[in-house]
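pinned: reference chain
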Amino acid sequence: MGFTPTRAIYDMDFDTKMLQGLEVRVRSVSLGEYLAVLGARRLADLPKRAWTDQDAQAIRGLYEAFAGALVAWNVEEEDGTPVPTTKDAVFAQDVTFMIPVGLAWVNAMGGGVTEDSDLGKDSPSGERFPEASLPMEALSTSPQS
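pinned: its structure tokens
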């Protein structure tokens, strides 16, 4: 009998003032899709003027993958009409709204580990490993020793 892995579903809540009250439910994607969108994630830290056409395509791929993984959200139009969870609806949203949402999705799939996280904060990084100070002597030049 084989094993069938289940796709993770992420319930994302946002604490930032701009996105307070937003609820997004997304599923995980394949490893191949994740690696593709992970490359686009690094672009968030670059000035937009440094982006190439290839970078813009990577960003597009990130939001196409997000739209394909979007299960539900509580986004509404100004008149209260619910915004569907389709690619067209995602791409019709304001960029200042969608950039943090997409990046949060990528971070959620990766366990939320970012360069600014506390990962390794209690590590003795930089301290010598005890065995590194063992006495060492020069090797003998004689093949018999």
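why pinned: The CA atoms of residues 113 and 119 lie 7 Å apart. The first strand starts at residue 9 and ends at 13.
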